[in-house]
Amino acid sequence: LKAAPFQYRSFIKFLFISGCRIGEGLGLQWNDLSGDCSTVTISRQWTQGKIKPLKKGGKPRTFSLPLAFSLEIQSLPRDSDFVFGTPIETETFRLAWIKILEEANVRYRKPYSCRHTFVCHRLQEGWKPTQIVQVTGHSLETMFTYYASYIAEEIHLPDL
After folding, report:
1. CA distance linking residue 108 with residue 119, whole number of Å
2. Which long-range contacts (CB under 8 A, 24 or more apart) does 99-102 make?
3. 5 contacts: CB under 8 Å, gap ≥ 6
4. Could you give the C-alpha distances from 121 to 17, 49, 113, 125, 144, in angstroms and in order?
């Protein structure tokens, strides 16, 4: 985050905190947040220069934000309907992302990795897959297909 230009820091932090898709974060509007910015509803995405419904017919989802981050969001300027400023194109963000990773001396990974990081960390912390899908909008099938290896535990078979 230190390597990110100021205008991207809160947005990138939101991606890691929420596990949202990039377009969902770009499309986040102030009216999607509670008055104190403690809860957020993801109900749209910004893609190809316009607001569109959630990917794959997804349903809106609401979840709480950490207190420190909700305070950070409250301090952002409200000079646009969008929380993170006038939406940029996904490709513009990807180019900035490459520069941020280079500046931070981190090997390249797609911005979508923020979503994977969120899911993997929550699984390792012991969150139930059903809790994670409430936040990310994945299906349980997707959770188990792509992330099951992160919930593997040492198995001890019972004596007979």
Report:
1. 19
2. 100/3, 100/4, 100/5, 100/8, 100/12, 101/3
3. 96, 100
4. 10, 31, 12, 6, 15
DSSP output for the chain: -TTS-HHHHHHHHHHHHH---HHHHHT-BGGGB-TTS-EEEE--EEETTEEEPPGGGPPPEEEE--HHHHHHHHTS--SSSBTTSSPPPHHHHHHHHHHHHHHHT-----TTHHHHHHHHHHHHTT--HHHHHHHH---HHHHHHHHGGGG-----PPP-
**Domain boundaries defined on the chain:** 6-151
Pairwise CA distance, residues 5 & 123, whole Å: 30
Q: Specify the pTM.
A: 0.89
Q: Are 117 and 123 in contact (CB under 8 A)?
A: no
Residue type, 112: Y
**CATH entry, 6-151, from 1.10.443.10, 1.10.340.30, 3.40.1190.20, 1.10.287.3510:** 1.10.443.10
pLDDT in tens, 13-59: 999 999 999 999 999 999 999 999 999 999 999 988 899 999 877 89
Residue at 14: amino acid letter:
F
